[in-house]
Fold:
Amino acid sequence: MAGFNAPNRRILVAGIGNIFLGDDGFGVEVVRRLRASPVPEGVIVADFGIRGLHLAYEILDGGYDLVVFVDALPRGNTPGAIELLEADLDDVSIQSATPDGHGMDPASVLALLRSMGGGSPPVVVVGCEPASLEEGMGLSPPVAASVDRAVRAVLDLVQQGENRQCV
Structure:
């Protein structure tokens, strides 16, 4: 086994969400703050917003060793709770792979990748439980208070990705 070769390893951190739907803009805000932080060479930090189709093609063509999605993740937890989930492309149904250029969640992006016959590097979702996904700009107080914790979680994942062993 060999570790990541620094000049060759690539990690994509993708902010996902709609800034016009309250806490759905969480991923976009985390990426905005990450851009002000130093990240290792080979780490791409990008705001994909609601451009899920663009994200699917970026993963397909990007040659990434790790992808980190940052998004609002409604799972019934306390608003502002941060959760890390490892996604498994094999568990994604291609039945939900309807391309939509202006609104895909992470599962739909992965389903589209699978339907196109593409594989995916390991994918980790850094999600935050939203308080509100109603129309309006700005994050709710509990979600806004979680942004810095999510930034730290992403930076930790990137650091682990640098040290992750590859077969």
